[in-house]
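Q: What changes when magnesium ion is included in the input?
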Amino acid sequence: RPRSLSGVQATSDSLHLGNYIGALRQFVAQQDTHEAFFFIANLHAITVDHDPAELRERTLRTAAQFLAAGLDPERATVFVQSQVVAHTQASWVLECVASLGELRRMTQFKDKSARNERVSLGLLSYPVLQAADILLYHPDVVPVGEDQRQHLELTRNLAERFNARFGETFTVPEPHILKATAKIYDLQDPTAKMSKSSPTAAGRIDILDEPKAVAKKIKSAVTDAGTEIAYDPEGKPGVSNLLTIYAALTGSSVEALVSEYEGRMYGHLKVDLAEVVVESLRPVRERTQELLADTAELERILDRGAARAREIADTTVKDVYAAVGFL
Ligand code: ATP
Ligand code: MG
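A: The predicted holo structure follows.
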């Protein structure tokens, strides 16, 4: 089986529809076709100001949502990043392979540093830690959304550079980005990606939102000039985003939806979509709440996941340390 690995940051109480469609659902699909590793990135979550109690809570909540969405700890290794020390160990070595210039060019660094008053060194070096997260496990594929393409490219570059300088050590991974669902847009600003860190929640549908809130957000989604329901991401980004979400959650094609809604109004589409989203998220939300009622069991699952992850990651760190000349 090919190996797959990916992570989600513990930066919010709830994941959003973009994380669910763009990342989580791919994880769930891959646990049957791949040897799969999925982790909760809590080291990454402290690159911007954070509250310790909140981070602890969010780490467990993110893990609960992984399982609630369908990840099975028997079939996939689910773990918390900070519990596998190798990530930090490999990251240091890769920091010495990366250059300041290439990190400054990362668009996510440019965006996030512009939004934050205090810019930590970690915010800059974060993509190197991400490269370590990935390369430690020698994955063949890394399922992510479109926004991570640049970071994946950096990971590949660092792996190649390390291998060229110190000998074949890392597998150069391929990004696995599903074109149709790789970027779900904000409902209030359909030119920006739906994001945990966006300042307002109005354009973001959270997995754990109450059905009423979901319906309200979809109803007030920004639509476009004209009345025709058509798929045209350039000219009609709002409606196209709604169609993308609809298609992703029902499995029907965008074309089929467009012909189904021919001659009908935006309002009709929104009412139906609200129903689709609410019913798709309902089991995930309910299961998350159940899992969070007993966090001891959740923590046991994460302990087992970390132990399995360490077996592989520690071996890679040994190879890396030997390659660079550490005693
Ligand atoms: P933050 O704003 O804190 O960076 P985020 O919403 O980007 O949060 P991440 O934890 O950084 O979430 O990303 C987790 C995964 O979800 C990544 O694979 C990312 O590419 C994917 N993802 C994030 N936002 C979207 C989106 N709007 N559409 C599709 N995939 C997304
Ligand atoms: Mg992100």
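Observations recorded in class: The chain has twelve helices and five strands.
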